[in-house]
Amino acid sequence: MDNGVDAIHPGYGFLSERADFAQACSDAGVRFVGPSPETVRKMGDKVEARSLAIGAGVPVVPGTNSPISSLQEAQAFAQTYGFPIIFKAAYGGGGRGMRVVREYEERLPEWRSNV
Prior knowledge:
alpha+beta, 4 strands, 10% strand, ATP_grasp_subdomain_1, biotin
């Protein structure tokens, strides 16, 4: 090691969520203080992360086992669990893919709203 570095703690956020960074540390013989590159990779997919948490016995809030792909699936979930609900992008980061829905609202497409 040129600088005598034998470990890196990535902090929170950006570098801690990069599987390629964790792998580069490992490849360079530097200990990555955090999960393995494979675990970081798995945690990047929120559906897989939820499944792994459930498998490990971690309590989770109500959710789906796979991505919702239709309005009917979303309505069924809301009828079962009530509002508010949060839609989360499976690969979203930093909360950017989250949308809170507080009530059911039916909207006409923009082109029909003046009818």
